[in-house]
Amino acid sequence: MKTNFSLCLRPGRVSAMIAGMLMLLMASCTTTSVFPVSTVLPAAEAKASATQDKNLNYSIVFTTKHTAAPEKLVPARRAYVLWAETSENGIINLGRVQISKGLTGALHTTLPFRPIRLFVTAEDSHLITTPGAQVILNLTL
Fold first, then answer.
1. Which strand (E) or helix (H) includes residue 120?
2. Cβ(28)–Cβ(20) below 8 Å
3. Geometric angle at alpha carbon 68, from 63 and 71, rounded to 5°
4. Is the pLDDT of residue 137 over 80?
5. Angle in degrees, CA 28, 32, 35, rounded to 5
6. Which of 123, 110, 139 is nearest to 47 (CA)?
7. What per-residue string of b and e applies to 21-34 under the rule 16 or more CB within 10 Å gives b?
8. pLDDT for res 31
9. 66 neighbors 43 (Cβ within 8 angstroms)
10. Which backbone phi and psi does 17 adopt, to 5 degrees?
11. Model confidence, pTM
12. CA 11, CA 14: separation in Å to the nearest integer?
């Protein structure tokens, strides 16, 4: 059986295929943003990325290093919580950021709304729906 590829690769179709691949590539690009230096934890170095996936959700990847445990803060707390501010649905608790003995932490999650700001608070519990006043890290996307 012989296939005639010239029918499939007409100039108009090739341009459309290339344009489609470029759009897909640009939509899947990830930009990692660095959080500004924290006044509460100046040694902490945090980064985050928010990438829209093929399902139109946002994949959030947060990492931090040189971050003291929340029990070391004054006043001491029990957990760090990562929050997303969205224009569509307000502020959302994305989950607890557990800090290891090596002073690192990470959280990977998915959000259906486009985040416009990510921030971390120190809390007495991670099971809360509104952030407390002790903001540790803050990043406008």
1. strand 115-123
2. no
3. 120
4. yes
5. 150
6. 139
7. eeeeeeeeeeeeee
8. 83
9. yes
10. -65, -40
11. 0.79
12. 5
Question: Phi then psi for 22, rounded to 5 degrees?
Answer: -65, -40
- Walk me through the domains of the chain, giving residue ranges and CATH numbers: 32-140 (2.60.40)
**Interval 15-56: pLDDT, tens:** 554 444 444 444 456 789 999 999 999 999 999 999 999 999
What's the rounded Cα separation, in Å, for the pair 70 and 52?
A: 31
pLDDT in tens, 75-134: 999 999 999 999 999 999 999 999 999 999 999 999 999 999 999 999 999 999 999 999
Q: Worst-scoring range by mean pLDDT, 10-19, 27-36, 62-71?
A: 10-19
- Contacts for 120 with CB less than 8 Å, ≥ 6 apart: 46, 64, 80, 81, 82, 83, 97, 135, 136, 137, 138
**Contact of 81 with 97, CB cutoff 8 Å:** yes
Six-digit token string for 100: 């290891």
**Does residue 7 register a pLDDT over 50?**
no
User: For residue 126, what are its two tokens?
Assistant: 């991670």
Q: In what order do the strands lie in the sheet with 32-34?
A: 32-34, 45-52, 58-65, 105-111
